[in-house]
Amino acid sequence: MAEYENTGGKSEAPNASRRVFFKQSSALAALAMTPPAAMTAVANGLDEKVAAAFEQMPLHVEINGTMRTLAIEPRVTLLDLLREQLHLTGTKKGCDHGQCGACTVHVDGQRVNSCLTLAMTTEGSQVTTIEGLTPGGPDGPLHPMQEAFIKHDGFQCGYCTPGQIMSAVACIREGHADSPEEVREYMSGNICRCGAYANIVDAIMDVKKGGARV
Amino acid sequence: MNQFQYTRVTTPKAAVSAISTGNGSYFLAGGTNLIDLMKREVVVPERLIDINKLPLATIEKTATGLRIGAMAKNSAVAESELVKKYVPLLTMALNAGASAQLRNMATVGGNMMQRTRCAYFYDTAMPCNKRSPVQAGADKGQTNGPVGCGAIGGINRMHAIFGASTKCIAVHPSDMCIALAALDATVNVSGPKGDRTIPFGDFHRLPGDTPQKDNTLLPGELIMSVDIPTNKFADHSHYLKVRDRASYAFALVSVGVAVDMKRDTIQDIRLAMGGVAHKPWRLIEAEQFLRGKSATEANFKQAAMLAMNGAKGYGENDFKLTLAPNSIIDALKTATKTA
């Protein structure tokens, strides 16, 4: 991108036409050398800021009750945004391909795989992670589902647990926890390699039968 | 994942206009298939047009049936009271597909647009004609890895027994599309040259010599909605999905059945199969045979035999030649029994 240096400073130079020429030629160079994002940026007169323009885009999203204004690369997934940029590491990266459910979070109240969600698509949405499941946050009292997972030994290594709990809470809220069979079906998107399934089902049924507000 | 340009649009017109400006542009809906393919660099878009903010998620009753917006989430469609009441086969099929999380993300249009695929398509080190088409001028973003078909003569347990070609034997994995094919749905699309309606059976295609093309959409066309005509099948619908585990797995074979029964007689019937072809596979001959017949096991067996005309195994999937007719018979029994 050294070409952009040729466009000179911001002041009105006497050789304005020369400056325009360089500006246009540098835009052409950018067209030839860079991805289409750069072309749009150039077309919008942002030639000095081309690199930044295609690397970062603005995102406004509410995460665990806090409105965030962020600048992110469009290719960043919601999972990577949460973990790498916001350091909300409660949400886990398992398969990173939507097959294991370890990355499950709620977007506008719906459970989704954050690994297959481009963060840019959450513009204007509300995201809830395991850290925001209760009003007190990570340092406050446990959620009834978290209590139940402890009571029923619903985990061994614990890696899938945040995803299991986010999914389990949604499972009850959706009205899909009326029987162990239904829970097994509607929790099938969360894999537990330790094999705590029986205890996870017990935990969910316990919360459901207990009638606690989830 | 490669870098790409990201554009968010809020109207269908803007979406069509945006995608028409260059090769290598893809619509992004739920992303459950596209983002996955991008992570593996099977698809390498230059630009994504995010259509998630398009106002196309309505499910409504029309004079002729149901209209489902292309951006309606799979879970929303499955839970819709209208869908449950008028086209329960669609609810059954949707709930048999993917996981609760994926159904919350995936849209109706995106479900249709998910790639017909197999493990060779996903592995850029392995040969695949769908991913790496032979001819020049192929779609951009699909030129990774060696050509050929790894599945023919390879690991092909999941693969097609109908309508395959020497270029590709992959199957379309959708459950939803089996129901829509059975129910004679039509697809409303909008494109640079205007709007048109595609019968569901013509939407997806067989591989032939161009396996890189999964469907008959023209460049720049956007799916707006799906229409399902009014029918009399609500009381006798069944979706049978046979798979390696009880939930969250692709079908080895699936059968969608919708019947209009009068006492023991089949007045009208729709049959479609999944997991067996490059597209949802309608069983027209079996339907014709069963129309006006009584619901007996003998008739079901005869229908299943007719349905298997032209079936061909590729080795590891030979078991489907037995599993498919048995599944048809089983699904017919269940569908004709339900109250």
TrEMBL record, chain A:
Record keywords, A-Z: 2Fe-2S, Iron, Iron-sulfur, Metal-binding, Oxidoreductase
N-terminal signal peptide: none
Superkingdom assignment: Bacteria
Pfam families from the UniProt entry: Fer2 (PF00111), Fer2_2 (PF01799)
Molecular-function GO terms, alphabetical: 2 iron, 2 sulfur cluster binding; metal ion binding; oxidoreductase activity, acting on the aldehyde or oxo group of donors
Record keyword Iron-sulfur present: yes
Keyword Oxidoreductase: yes
Residue ranges annotated for the 2Fe-2S ferredoxin-type domain, each copy included: 57-133
PANTHER family: OXIDOREDUCTASE WITH IRON-SULFUR SUBUNIT, OXIDOREDUCTASE, IRON-SULPHUR BINDING SUBUNIT-RELATED-RELATED
Protein name: (2Fe-2S)-binding protein
From TrEMBL, chain B:
Domain of life per record: Bacteria
SMART domains: CO_deh_flav_C
Domain FAD-binding PCMH-type: 1-233
Entry GO MF terms: FAD binding; oxidoreductase activity
UniProtKB keywords: FAD, Flavoprotein
InterPro entries assigned to the protein according to its UniProt record, in alphabetical order: CO_DH_flav_C, CO_DH_flav_C_dom_sf, Diverse_Substr_Oxidored, FAD-bd_PCMH, FAD-bd_PCMH-like_sf, FAD-bd_PCMH_sub1, FAD-bd_PCMH_sub2, Mopterin_DH_FAD-bd
Protein's name in the database: Xanthine dehydrogenase family protein subunit M
Organism: Spirosoma sordidisoli
Lineage of the species this protein comes from: Bacteria, Pseudomonadati, Bacteroidota, Cytophagia, Cytophagales
